[in-house]
Amino acid sequence: MQSSIKVNGSLVSGILSGLNNSSDALKERLIQLINVYSDQLAYMLLAYHPREKVSSIQVIADSIHLNIPEVITLKIQYALEEFSVCSAIDTLQLEKMTLTMLIDQKTKELEIKGEYWPERDPD
To answer: Where are the domains of the chain?
Structure first.
């Protein structure tokens, strides 16, 4: 299983124009993009964690890598919250995931993909 979302707009255009500029400016734009689309990313991450609530998505700044001009990888940290009414137990756990961003120069879209997690066949 691998979940993804597609985004476009002025932030994506800013990232496209920043590909040839300084890496610090590009990193700032990527962090801003993740912050703006944090709700959509939280829904994407629910595919990986269907029983928890995803919140507090943050980019690990030193994890941003521009592999080739159209592929960016970065790591995010996020909180998983779970509340069990029967047990009256709240849990909060921090998780990390590597995201891959694929840039389509023609459509000016950015596809954000989560990690690939193999699905287990039922017993």
So the answer is: 4-113
Model pLDDT for residues 45-83, shown as the tens digit of each residue: 999 988 888 999 999 989 988 877 788 999 999 999 887
CB contact set of 82 (below 8 Å; sequence gap of 6+): 51, 52, 53, 90, 91, 93
Give the burial string for 39-57 (b: 16+ CB within 10 Å, else e): eebbebbeebbeebebeeb
Q: Sheet of 53-68: strands edge to edge? A: 4-8, 109-113, 89-104, 71-84, 53-68
Single pTM value for the model: 0.83
CATH annotation of 4-113: 3.10.450
